C-alpha cells in the first residue's frame, strides 16, 4: 500500500510556477500493477521520484507499509568511476541483501562481459541501462517503480527482461510508466492517469487508457 496525504509539488518554469501534483489525497491498493499514464510534461517522472524519495514534496507526505524500489528505467544512477560490480556491491549493502548473490545475478542478467568489471564511465547508455534494470530486479521489493520495462538490447535480451519482470509481479506490485500501450496491457491490471496536477485511479485498465486518450485529444495545458 502507498498513500498520499495533501501532497503537492511544483516547479518554476520560464519564470512561472507550474503545479504538477495538486493536493493529492489517495491510497493506492496493494496487489496491483498500475500503469501511470499522462502526456509528456504531466509530471509522471516527478511523481515516481516523490514515491521513491529522491525528490521532496512542497507539502504533504507519502506513506507506505512495504518496501519501494528506486525509480528505475534503463538508466540507473551509479558512480561513474566505480565498476559495474562495485556499484552493485554498494547497492547490495545499502539494501541489506546478499552481496555475492546480487552481483552474480546482475552480471549474468546484464550480459556485458568484461565491461562489468570496468569503470561505468566507459559504458554505453545501453550498458548502464542493463545494469540498472538488473540491479532493481535482483532485489525483492514490495513495489517496483519502473520507467519502461524494456527499451534497449536485442530481441533475446528484451524477452529475458519481460520474463524476469513478469516473475517479480507474481509476488510484488508495480507502478509502470510506458508510452507503449501494448506493454501497459501486458504488465498492468489497473491504471493511474495524471493530468493538470490531478491523479485518477481506475480499477479497470481499459478505462484508464480511454481517459488518457481522451486527455491526449485535448490541447496541452503546457501550450505545446
Describe the secondary structure blueprint for this structure:
Layout: E1 2-13, E2 16-28, E3 33-37, H1 44-52, E4 59-64, E5 68-72, H2 84-95, H3 99-110, H4 125-137, E6 143-147, H5 155-168, E7 173-177, H6 181-187, E8 190-195, E9 198-202, H7 205-216
Helix pairs in contact: 2-3, 3-4
Give the ordered list of helices and strands: EEEHEEHHHEHEHEEH
Number-wise, the strands total 9
Given as residue ranges, the uncertain stretches (5+ residues, pLDDT < 50) are none
The shape is: globular
**Percent range for helical residues?**
25-40%
Tell me the fraction of residues in β-strands, as a range. 25-35%
Instruction: Report strand order across the widest sheet.
Output: 5-6-7-3-8-9
Mean pLDDT: 91
Tell me the structural class.
alpha/beta
Cα Rg: 18 Å
The major beta sheet can be summarized as:
6 strands, mixed
- How far the N terminus sits from the C terminus, by CA atoms, comes to 35 Å
How many helix segments?
A: 7
Amino acid at each position: 500500500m502507498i498513500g498520499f496525504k495533501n501532497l503537492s509539488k511544483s516547479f518554476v518554469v520560464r519564470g512561472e510556477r507550474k503545479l504538477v501534483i495538486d493536493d493529492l489525497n489517495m491510497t493506492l491498493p496493494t496487489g496491483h500493477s498500475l500503469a501511470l499514464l499522462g502526456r509528456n510534461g504531466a509530471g509522471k517522472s516527478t511523481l515516481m521520484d516523490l514515491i521513491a524519495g529522491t525528490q521532496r514534496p512542497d507539502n504533504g507526505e507519502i506513506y507506505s507499509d512495504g518496501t519501494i524500489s528506486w525509480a528505475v528505467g534503463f538508466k540507473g544512477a551509479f558512480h561513474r568511476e566505480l565498476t559495474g560490480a562495485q556499484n552493485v556491491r554498494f547497492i547490495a549493502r545499502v539494501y541489506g541483501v546478499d552481496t555475492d548473490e546480487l552481483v552474480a545475478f546482475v552480471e549474468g542478467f546484464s550480459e556485458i562481459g568484461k565491461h562489468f568489471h570496468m569503470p561505468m564511465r566507459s559504458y554505453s547508455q545501453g550498458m548502464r541501462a542493463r545494469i540498472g534494470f538488473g540491479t532493481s530486479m535482483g532485489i525483492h521489493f514490495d513495489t517496483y517503480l519502473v520507467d519502461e520495462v524494456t527499451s534497449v538490447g536485442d530481441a533475446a535480451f528484451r524477452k529475458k527482461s519481460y520474463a524476469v519482470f513478469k516473475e517479480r509481479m507474481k509476488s510484488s506490485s508495480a507502478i509502470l510508466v510506458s508510452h507503449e500501450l501494448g506493454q501497459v496491457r501486458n504488465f498492468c491490471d489497473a491504471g493511474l492517469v495524471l493530468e493538470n496536477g490531478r491523479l485518477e485511479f481506475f480499477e479497470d485498465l481499459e478505462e484508464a487508457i480511454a481517459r488518457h486518450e481522451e486527455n491526449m485529444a485535448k490541447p496541452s495545458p503546457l501550450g505545446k
